[in-house]
Amino acid sequence: MAPELQTAIAQTKLQCPELLAPAGNWECAKAAIENGADAIYFGLDRFNARMRAENFTEADLPDLMAFLHRRGVKGYVTMNTLIFPSELPEAEQYLRSIISAGVDAAIVQDVGICRLIRHLSPDFPIHASTQMTVTSTAGVEFAKDLDCQLVVLARETSLKDINRIQQQTAKLDVTLPLEVFVHGALCVAYSGQCLTGESLGGG
């Protein structure tokens, strides 16, 4: 191998991305693991954007997380809806269960839930959901101010936009991992604007 090529390879520190797959039940979770997922994300029976789909329950959490961790797989719970004030007591109880069950992170849309998580735990990981509609460097900065550890960019963000955001955040020393959807997003509305899709297509 040419010396200049060896140098270029040595200087290029590529990180293998985490492969994250959705799983709404035990069969899906097992299939994701068997096919190489590094982590799965799933909703519970409240406060997630796929309430009409099959979901795990709060009671499933301890066994599910033990199952995942025995196999070296992480589990993230989606709390990716906006929470009404009347729902906050139940949301807090859910968060306490999520944290105590050893969940690896919560994927969150609501700014208030980010702050509630930090009130309950000083270090429980928060991932900014694609439902936050983060499409810019300013959005990543905002997520960092909320003490998020990762940002899931809006699904409509282009490769050019992603590259620009990475370059700008690096210059500003706003170092947060960025996550993107690569397959399976069927919504035709902007990320996080679910009422638009609901009114247009009922989905």
Automatic annotation (TrEMBL):
InterPro entries: Peptidase_U32 (IPR001539), RNA/ubiquinone_mod_enzymes (IPR051454)
A Pfam cross-reference name: Peptidase_U32
Tree of life domain: Bacteria
Name of the protein in question: U32 family peptidase
Organism: Romeriopsis navalis LEGE 11480
Highest classification ranks of the organism: Bacteria, Bacillati, Cyanobacteriota, Cyanophyceae, Leptolyngbyales
